[in-house]
Specification:
Metal_Hydrolase; Amidohydro-rel; alpha/beta; TIM Barrel; 8 strands; hydrolase; hydrolase activity; 8-stranded parallel beta sheet
């Protein structure tokens, strides 16, 4: 792994918050193991191993029932590690793949049978090379026929330019990590309010995830500077929000979060049992397990 890579927390706390029965960790990853599933030669980073067995053990420890595993950029367009994890999950995991425009119909069908239900479009320049938008359009047209959706990973300054493109896509679109707002500006800033307004379009969903990435004050204050952003979206769009750990937290530089402590943020952003059930059970089940 990279010399400055921060490995995932080896002993997370047991959360004080008990998730509702059937709760889904709707954003997590598997890395390798590299000796079985080598990382892509075009990768921008080299992580430590984070296996399906370790992910499923964490799921049990945190009190969750299911996972949505998102293809990590370190594996490029080779989804073998993802498919392997899905096939070992006993139908308790679904997947989001990264694919090339020339992928065969047979391979798409194979991934669908394994549990893939979406593709990820990554616009974060430090993680991936630029992809022409017409390539994304060709992929979107093909996966729409399977009933899949699109996950988009971007940073807040890039959102305005992407809005017309995202609105034109033929599928549901899910934003990773609330489109990465600058939390120093506050929830009322026009930048975040632009995203809140965009979410009025019912084709858009978002993940209220990764306070550890967005916070400027860190875990000692329970990521309280990010909580208002997450809470606003949960309350305004309760039927189109998802939550996940982001385990094993790739490319963290400031600190490695305790996954149990991240779970304990949930009741701060979804303050009633009804909102918690929507966020953790009903919404991910509707998006990933209802065919």
């Amino acid at each position: 792994m990279d010399i400055d890579w921060m490995a995932w927390h080896p002993d997370p706390k047991k959360p004080d918050f008990i998730p509702p029965v059937g709760a889904v960790d709707a954003h997590c990853h598997v890395f390798g193991p590299a000796d079985k599933f080598p990382f892509a030669p075009t990768r921008k980073y080299t992580p430590c191993d984070a296996s399906k067995e370790q992910l499923f053990a964490l799921r049990h420890h945190l009190g969750f029932s299911r996972n949505v595993i998102v293809q990590a950029s370190c594996h490029g367009q080779n989804n073998d590690a993802l498919v392997d994890a899905l096939q070992a999950s006993n139908d308790l995991a679904r997947g989001v793949a990264v694919v090339s425009p020339d992928i065969s119909d047979a391979e798409l069908r194979r991934m669908h049978a394994a549990g893939v239900r979406g593709v990820r479009f990554n616009f974060v320049k430090r993680l991936v090379d630029n992809t022409p938008r017409e390539v994304f359009v060709s992929i979107a047209d093909r996966i729409a026929k399977l009933g899949w959706h699109i996950i988009v990973y971007l940073e807040s300054p890039d959102l305005p330019d992407l809005i017309p493109f995202l609105e034109s896509l033929p599928t549901t679109v899910v934003f990773d990590h609330m489109a990465r707002p600058d939390v120093s500006k506050g929830v009322d800033h026009p930048d975040f309010q632009r995203f809140v307004t965009l979410m009025e379009n019912e084709k858009f969903w978002c993940k209220v995830t990764c306070p550890e990435r967005l916070s400027l004050i860190g875990p000692d204050q329970d990521y309280s500077d990010v909580v208002p952003f997450m809470k606003l979206l949960v309350e305004k769009y309760p039927d189109r929000v998802l939550w996940g750990t982001d385990w094993p937290h790739p490319n963290m530089k400031s600190h490695m979060p305790d996954d149990g402590a991240l779970v304990d943020v949930i009741p701060m952003i979804a303050t009633t049992p009804q909102l918690q059930k929507k966020l953790l059970v009903e919404n991910p089940m509707r998006l990933y397990w209802e065919d």
